From TrEMBL, chain A:
Highest rank taxon of the organism: Bacteria
Principal location listed in the UniProt entry: membrane
Signal peptide region: none
Database matches in PANTHER family: ABC TRANSPORTER PERMEASE PROTEIN YPHD-RELATED-RELATED (PTHR32196)
Higher taxonomy: Bacteria, Pseudomonadati, Pseudomonadota, Alphaproteobacteria, Hyphomicrobiales
Topological relation to the membrane, as annotated: Multi-pass membrane protein
Subcellular localization, as worded in the UniProt entry: Cell membrane
Keywords from the UniProt entry: Cell membrane, Membrane, Transmembrane, Transmembrane helix
Organism the protein comes from: Pseudorhizobium tarimense
Transmembrane segments: 27-46, 67-89, 95-115, 127-153, 159-180, 201-220, 251-269, 281-299, 305-325
Name by which UniProt lists this protein: Inositol transport system permease protein
Pfam families noted in UniProt: BPD_transp_2
TrEMBL record, chain B:
Matches recorded under InterPro entries: AAA+_ATPase, ABC_carbohydrate_import_ATPase, ABC_transporter-like_ATP-bd, ABC_transporter-like_CS, P-loop_NTPase
Organism taxonomic ancestry: Bacteria, Pseudomonadati, Pseudomonadota, Alphaproteobacteria, Hyphomicrobiales
Native organism: Pseudorhizobium tarimense
Database matches in PANTHER family: CARBOHYDRATE TRANSPORT ATP-BINDING PROTEIN MG119-RELATED, SUGAR ABC TRANSPORTER ATP-BINDING PROTEIN
Coiled-coil ranges from the UniProt annotation: none
Protein name as annotated: Fructose transport system ATP-binding protein
Top-level taxon of the source organism: Bacteria
Presence of keyword Repeat: no
């Protein structure tokens, strides 16, 4: 018989003061802090605002163009990061996503080409006329299928051979990059159909990123899949003893990550109107960095899509901020490296503090 | 042979790990509502015995009869499904999840069935968690707290409460207080008494003589992979039990088994 007091039974209560400050709030504060720093530096060094619109004729508060650039910049890697977040929460890591983007973009683009450019035959036609002017669903399906296969292979290696995820996905990273180069012997593939262009046109990357982020946020929070992903990353033995089919679940997690890399490949090649074998290089590390900055613990079990989205925004703000301050791109990379290390150190520190007790 | 109120019986249960005979011909019986302690030195075969009857491992030989029917468990989940709940020595809790999540791990209540993407019913799980905690009189300050932020005693209580959530027919606890302080031990012992009042059967593995004599009806002693004594609490005393554990004495009916 439950008591009428929903907030407690006997000494058992929901003590709201004892409830932990959500980690995402820290990430949000970091984001605001970083924006503040750039805002300050902007006024000191450039004599203008970073994010706010200070021109007289404007109708809006924010510098919309810069906001748009920030969000656009991170949305494609952000799509990958949604998958990588799930892999890391499950206690794994995925180093293959950047290469999978490259290979999936090449293969998809070769099914998305027009037959003729300005009355002449498409000079970059990869597969011959039979693969030209196909409906847009064909290249989309091809990219998703490639991501799916790469994910199944990653997941099966991790789940059933016992090799560390780092090695399994490193293998896929090198292999998929090889496939991307081999597909056309290194030649770029260009001139997509109008249908394919539309997929990554304008703000479409942002819309796709946000939609997927919301979807997977709900999936991680409110489905058995999400609960088991957290449980496996938190204590794999406990998950197994509780009857969770750990191997099968891992395959599913890596497969979802692979398919999200496929989605990123579609958006990226569509937005760039071309596919090259070198596409997506280092994206896997950027995606991991976004997740880690967003509070996803590399030791598994902890993290959220909201955190990763905030991490992605921090990433975008830093890149955009450096450009705004007209600092060299070299500094960007150095600072990026420092931030990633700092985020992991912070996570370790938080875990140790938690281990010391409440 | 098997009386109607025998909840679990093993006949000649044996487990060999390669050449190591960890468990040899264990004949064990527990009645409904009975609390039985399993005692013995380290490596005497207590944990091995538990692993066989909970589906963690498969016995080399022998029979397990649960509720009158012969059973074989492929995995712990199957044992759990028929009603054998185990609180393992290693707690088998997910540190990053909260109390209801852990209680329902692997058998979540869902609002809408959709394969792995079934929608969780948090409200129902929380409700049933509270009922279970009340039933066992477990006190946990905040259900929403993750296990990571809990003391050893609280963790143990969560693990025990898990058994109560699912109306188990038999609860097995493997040294539930080994790592706990005095107060926390008392708390866990209170829960065990509550289970006794409610007529739950329990197998308690413990090294703590005082605890065993406080809590159980019967004591079964293991030595070197064999059962060497089966003693009613009223007919024995701690010194006697120690004699059996150390091998100074062997129960008359087990003479040939221990030879």
């Amino acid at each position: 018989m439950a008591t009428s007091n929903l907030h407690g039974v006997g000494d058992l209560t929901f003590d709201s003061s004892n409830r932990r400050w959500p980690n995402e709030m820290n990430v949000l504060l970091a984001l605001i802090l970083i924006i503040g720093i750039f805002e300050l530096l902007g006024h000191l060094m450039m004599g203008q605002s970073f994010l706010f619109d200070t021109s007289d004729r404007s109708t809006s508060i924010f510098n919309e163009q810069r906001l748009r650039i920030i969000i656009l910049q991170v949305s494609i890697v952000g799509i990958i990061a949604i998958g990588v977040t799930q892999v890391i929460i499950s206690g794994g890591i995925d180093l293959s996503s950047g290469s999978v983007v490259g290979a999936a973009a090449m293969i998809a683009m070769s099914f998305a080409q027009v037959a003729e450019v300005n009355g002449n035959a498409n000079p970059t036609l990869a597969l011959g006329p039979w693969a030209a002017d196909l409906p847009v669903l064909v290249p989309i399906a091809v990219a998703l299928l490639f991501g799916l296969l790469a994910g199944i292979i990653n997941g099966s290696l991790v789940a059933y051979t016992g090799i560390p995820p780092f090695i399994a996905t490193l293998g896929m990273m090198v292999t998929a990059r090889g496939i991307a180069k081999w597909w056309t012997a290194g030649r770029p593939i260009s001139f997509p159909t109008d249908g394919y262009r539309a997929v990554g046109d304008g703000l479409m990357p942002v819309i796709i990123f946000v939609t997927l982020a919301v979807l997977f946020h709900l999936v991680l929070r409110h489905t058995v899949y999400g609960k088991h992903t957290h449980a496996i990353g938190s204590n794999e033995d406990a998950a197994r003893m509780s009857g969770i089919k750990v191997g099968r679940h891992k395959v599913l997690v890596y497969t979802i990550a692979g398919m999200l890399a496929g989605v990123a490949a579609i958006v990226l090649s569509s937005k760039n109107l071309t596919a090259q074998a070198g596409m997506g290089v280092m994206y896997e590390l950027d995606a991991i960095a976004m997740a880690v900055i967003g509070g996803v613990s590399l030791s598994g079990g902890r993290g959220s899509i909201i955190g990763t989205v905030l991490g992605a925004l921090i990433f975008g703000v830093i890149i955009s901020g450096f450009t705004f301050l007209r600092l060299d791109a070299y500094y960007q990379e150095m600072v990026k490296g420092g931030i990633i290390v700092a985020a992991v150190v912070l996570d370790q520190w938080r875990q140790r503090r938690a281990a010391w007790g409440p | 042979m098997t009386s109607s109120n025998t909840i679990l019986e093993t006949v000649g249960l044996t487990k060999h790990y390669g050449g190591v005979h960890a468990l040899e011909g264990a004949d064990f019986k527990i009645h409904a509502g009975e609390h039985v302690a399993i005692m013995g030195d380290n490596g005497a075969g207590k944990s091995t015995f538990v692993r066989q009857i909970t589906g963690v491992e498969r016995p080399t030989r022998g029979q397990i009869i649960f509720n009158g029917a012969s059973v074989t468990f492929e995995n712990p989940m199957e044992a759990r499904e028929v009603g054998i709940e185990t609180v393992f020595q290693s707690l088998a809790l997910a540190d990053e999840l909260d109390v209801p999540d852990n209680l329902f791990l692997g058998r979540e209540l869902v609002r809408f069935r959709l394969g792995p993407f079934s929608i969780l019913d948090y409200k129902a799980m929380r409700q049933r968690t509270m009922e279970a905690l009340e039933k066992t009189a477990v006190k946990i300050p905040n259900l929403k707290n993750t296990i990571r932020n809990m003391s050893g005693g609280q963790r143990q209580c969560v693990a025990i409460a898990r058994t109560a959530t699912f109306h188990s027919k038999l609860t097995i606890m493997d040294e539930p207080t080994a790592a706990l302080g005095v107060q926390e031990t008392a708390q866990v012992e209170n829960i065990i008494r509550t289970l006794k009042q409610q007529g739950e059967s329990l197998i308690l593995i413990s090294h703590n003589m005082r605890q065993v004599f406080d809590l159980v009806d019967r004591i079964v002693v293991f030595r070197r992979g064999r059962i060497v004594a089966d003693l009613r609490k009223e007919e024995t005393d701690p010194q006697d039990v120690v004699a059996y554990i150390t091998g100074a004495k062997t129960g008359a009916e087990f003479q040939d088994a221990a030879a």
